[in-house]
Design a protein that fits this description.
Distance between the termini: 62 Å
Order of helices and strands: HHHH
Shape: rod-shaped
Helix content: over 70%
Number of helices: 4
Strand content: under 5%
C-alpha cells in the first residue's frame, strides 16, 4: 500500500513537471529540427496529453482506493456516517425532551 502512495506521489510530481506547455515545446523543437512534421507533432502532443490524463486518473483511483482501505483498517468513521448518527441522536434527544415535557404536564 505504501508503494502505491509512493508511486502516486512520484507520478504527481512527474505530472507537474511535464505540463502541456513542456510537451508542446518539445514537439516544436522536433519540428524545427526536421525530425517530425507539424501534423505528427500535433498528434504526438495530443497522444501524450491523453495518455498522461489516463495515467493520472488511474493513479487517482488507486490512491483513493488505498486510502479507503487504510481508513477502514484504522476504524475511522466516515464523515457521512458520523453526520447520519449525529442526526439520529439529535432526533432521539428531541423525542426524549418532548416525552419528558409531556410527563411533567401530567
Amino acid at each position: 500500500m505504501l508503494e502505491v502512495i509512493k508511486k502516486g506521489f512520484l507520478a504527481s510530481l512527474g505530472a507537474a513537471v511535464v505540463t502541456m506547455e513542456k510537451i508542446q515545446e518539445a514537439t516544436r523543437s522536433l519540428v524545427q529540427e526536421g525530425k517530425i512534421s507539424t501534423d505528427e507533432a500535433e498528434k504526438l502532443t495530443h497522444d501524450l496529453i491523453k495518455s498522461g490524463e489516463q495515467q493520472w486518473q488511474e493513479i487517482n483511483e488507486k490512491l483513493t482506493e488505498s486510502m479507503k482501505k487504510v481508513a477502514e483498517n484504522m476504524n475511522v468513521v466516515r464523515q457521512k456516517d458520523f453526520q447520519e448518527l449525529k442526526s439520529r441522536l439529535e432526533a432521539l434527544e428531541e423525542r426524549i425532551a418532548a416525552m419528558e415535557g409531556a410527563k411533567k404536564e401530567m
